[in-house]
Amino acid sequence: MEWGLRNRLSRIIRPTTGHTVMLAVDHGYFLGPTRRLEVPRKTIEPLIPYADALMITRGVVRTSIDPRTNVPIVLRVSGGASVLNEDLSHEAVTTSMKDAVRINASAVAMSIFVGAPHEHDSLVNLGELVNLGEEHSMPVLAVTAVGKELEKRDARYLSLACRMAAEFGAHFVKTYYCDPGFDKVVESCPVPVVVAGGPKLETAADVLELTHASIGAGAAGVDMGRNIWQSDDPVGMIRAVRSIVHEGATAKEALGDLKGGKGKR
Ligand code: R5P
């Protein structure tokens, strides 16, 4: 891997642990003002010290993140369909590589929609984004299994989608956890896999168990949104997630810290 590309990627996936806690706050690009992300700055600012990277759009970077903040940016560069549309897969690359470089992004991210009506376009777009990424030493994160494909998120589907993303040249892949078989998803994907949290889970224990199981199955980390900032204690939750991802805590230990309100890890 080229030096600049490796350097950028190592800002996101910490070389000291080989893991990452990315904070996903890009939801507005198709969901608008999602609950608890209505005023992005308010939600995001307190969490920045605990995030290894922010997954975010250029609009929210420019309006809501202090440019002096030294948090790596994983820039969401695809879009084109809203939640009002039946078919969420009709996306294109909407933010240029030039703008990503201008923002000093550490990576760019786009969704692919394997098995959806616009599968072909999303895959071709991924190939083109990787071509540009290689030219600019910009890692590409392929996001798989969003939207309707969520219903099909068993190990077989996720293995297919993640492996295809890697074969197209994505430098890392974001997908959802599944049980059974997530270890096989990770094993058959030759690039690092990060796990999305998905819609808010019922309890904090569920979130921490999901995190622990993902890391146990070989994931490089999480790229989590709603289960952090929609929780009653977002800072406590991201700290608890970090303790699992970076310090090898069990879900129970992390939950103990969270409930104790100490955030000691
Ligand atoms: C997916 O593409 C979205 O834009 C989010 O980045 C993703 O769903 C991760 O956030 P959450 O943990 O809330 O699912």
Tally of separate domains:
1
Question: Hey, roughly how much beta strand do the residues contain?
Answer: 5-15%
Structural class: alpha/beta
- CATH superfamily name? Aldolase class I
* Low-pLDDT stretches: none
Write a structural description:
This protein has 265 residues and is α/β, with parallel strands linked by helices. It has a single domain (3-189), classed as Aldolase class I (TIM Barrel), CATH 3.20.20.70. It contains twelve helices and ten strands. It has helices at 3-12, 28-31, 40-44, 58-64, 97-102, 119-136, 155-167, 182-187, 204-216, 226-229, 234-247, 251-260, and strands spanning 20-24, 53-56, 73-76, 78-79, 92-93, 107-111, 140-143, 172-176, 193-196, 221-224. The strands form two sheets. It has an eight-stranded parallel beta barrel with strand order 1-2-3-6-7-8-9-10, surrounded by six helices. Strands 4-5 form a two-stranded antiparallel ribbon. Helix 9 packs antiparallel against helix 12 (251-260). The radius of gyration is 17 Å and the shape is globular. The two termini are 33 Å apart. The mean pLDDT is 95. The structure holds ribose-5-phosphate. Residues 24, 26-27, 55, 111, 143, 146, 196-198, 223-227 line the site of ribose-5-phosphate.
